[in-house]
Amino acid sequence: MVQIVPWAAEWAPAFETLNREWLERDFSVEPLDEALFADPVGRILEPGGAIWFALEEGRAVGTVAAIRGGPLVFEMAKMAVAPAAQGRGVGRALAEAVIAHATAAGADRVRLLTDTKLAAAVRLYERLGFRRVAGAGVTGYARGDVQMELALPPGERGTSVPRGVNKAA
Predict the structure, then answer these.
(1) Torsion of the alpha carbons at 92, 97, 99 and 100, rounded to the nearest 10
(2) Which residues are in the N-acetyltransferase domain (predicted)?
(3) Using CA atoms, how far apart are residues 52 and 39, in angstroms rounded to an integer?
(4) Which regions in the chain score pLDDT beneath 70?
(5) What integer pLDDT is reported at residue 126 of this predicted model?
């Protein structure tokens, strides 16, 4: 069984390792990636973001970050699931943790950048209610030809404890 847990220093190396695996396989590691890997606390957590890990039998098999993009916006970023754990709902559980966090923080939307090359990821995001948006801004990455956004329901914003934390996938 997979459990979704919030950032803990002991899992920090997995944030980089899991992400490097898919980046090096499908694209390349870019300067912005390196900056996030070098200082996830300063670049993601301290500005009001969050990072979660999917744990299975004491080892991290997935990770995702929620990066604050303003008072009402979070970016879902650095979603990575180990190949052996794919297809079992791990990515969905991680994405739900980001959505719950953004909702609880009072955000009105979650954005993300993905690529058509990552067809399974695009399908997951669409099933979660994300819609493609055009011209959402400069991304800072050479990769990524699909920008998506999920509008969060106003009645739920800022009222709940983030779901998905310590949730079994």
Answers:
(1) 140
(2) 2-153
(3) 15
(4) 135-139, 155-169
(5) 97
| Within-domain flag for 44 | yes
Residue 57 resides in a domain: yes
Q: Would residue 169 count as lying in a domain?
A: no
- As for how many domains the chain has, the answer is 1
What is the rounded distance in angstroms from the CA atom of residue 20 to the CA atom of residue 18?
6
pLDDT at 157: 65
The set of residues, in sequence order, having a beta carbon less than 8 Å from that of 8 and lying 6+ positions away, is 53
Alpha-carbon distance 15 to 62, whole Å? 8
- From the number of C-beta atoms within 10 Å of its C-beta (0-12, 13-18, 19+), residue 52 rates as buried
Give the per-residue pLDDT at 5.
Answer: 98
At residue 44, what are phi and psi to the nearest 5 degrees? -120, -55
Q: Is 54 helix (H, G, I), strand (E, B) or coil?
A: strand
Phi first, then psi, for residue 104 (nearest 5°) are -65, -30
Owning domain of residue 110: 2-164
Residue 144 is predicted with a pLDDT of 81
CATH number for the domain including 92? 3.40.630.30
Q: Which helix (H) or strand (E) holds 37?
A: helix 31-38
Residue 152: inside a domain:
yes
pLDDT at 166: 40
